[in-house]
Amino acid sequence: MIQDILDNLLHLYSIDTRPWIVGYSGGKDSTMIASLVFEAVITLPPDLRKKEICIVCTDTRVEIPAIVNRVQNELDHMNICSKEHCLNITAHLLKPPAQQSFWVNIIGRGYPPPNRNFRWCTQRLKIDPVSEFIRNKLGHWGEAIIILGARRNESGSRAQTLDARAKNEFGLRRHDDLPRCWISTPIEHLSTFDVWDYLIERPCPWGGDNLTLFQLYKKASGGECPLVVDQSTPSCGNSRFGCWTCTVVERDKASEGLLATGDQRMEALLHFRDTLMHYRDPENGFRDMVRKNGQEGPGPLKIEARKELLSKLLALQEESDLPVISEEELHWIQTYWNSARNPDDGTGVVNIIFQQKGDTMPDSRDDAELRDIEQRVASEKEISLETLRRLIAKVEEYGESHRAVGLPDELLQILQDDLRERQIEKGEVYA
Q1: Cross-strand pairs, 184
Q2: Torsion sign (Cα): 128, 134, 139, 145
Q3: Which of 113, 162, 180, 426 has its CB 3.0 to 4.6 Å from that of 276, i.e. a possible disulfide?
Q4: pLDDT tens column, 65-92
Q5: What is the DSSP string of 270-314?
């Protein structure tokens, strides 16, 4: 059975020059598919190892620490092995840009932590980085084949997804969102037993330690979070290794399993996950009751709640000694606070950092003249000073991200917020 898969991979390798993109997450299925690709290419004579192959893995910036450590080590060994044997395989660790990170979306923009009905994290943290990488490559390649470790017996929904896509004569399916890409799923008919039998019985081509991987599964009593390349791919959850912040599932059994078997880092992380779920519940008073589009209903986290969460997150980083949030993310959080409802004065993040250290932030700003100008402009335009500052901050925010699409709508929404506040003051509408 394994030899048949290897033969099919070699045939697919030889029929054309289309590069391959191999999805890797560090879990059992993706480890097997990456191993099979390495095995197949190594069997070829050196002068035939011409096809460009990219192993891609996404780090959401909030992955379980044990997985982060393993994945980076495995990718490094893949690159070393490829270079030694001239395999033309490169391994890449992809991350969402800082302005789209989990913490910038929640603490900066005020997004509520994800749930089953609003799972914004999958697209931004997993799909987009991979899609951006592939699109950049397609500019040089034209077409590509994506090789994934999807298996039918993972779940009923996975089997339905595989059935829904028609195969061509080479066993390839069209990608739903990337029309110049084809998908290959060489191990789709294997069982979980088949996967572990392969990983334990055959040495890892790049020198990885699959027994350590097995022990990691044993501790977590779950499966891996797959590389996600479209919305039909199941995201993290159901005891899969994934983000320690995952609030889509009621219980993160993988994280709980790691804690129960001695990974003490998970205790503080699980506690913070519970904090996120508490802040998500509209009944607890942390969310605006007006959505970002101005409609009534549970909206973004209030600016006060975002500041509380940042303070708690920085405390978690200090206590756990884990790199939970980066300086670049802190910069973007402040940027979004400047244009939020009840905007920050531009010093909120720095002030929280100083408070965390037990110091008082020095007041070195001499902006009395600027405040006077802002007051005059706000008065002339018949808007509040807060609204003017939000408008300026929103324009600066778009300038930093080098894009303008959506800016007019966001400015209009800020002006509508101003109008609504004035109507509330006059008693024309209720808060």
Answers
A1: 147
A2: negative
A3: 113
A4: 988 888 999 999 999 999 999 999 999 9
A5: HHHHHHHHHHH-GGGT-B-SB-TTS-BS--SBPHHHHHHHHHHHH
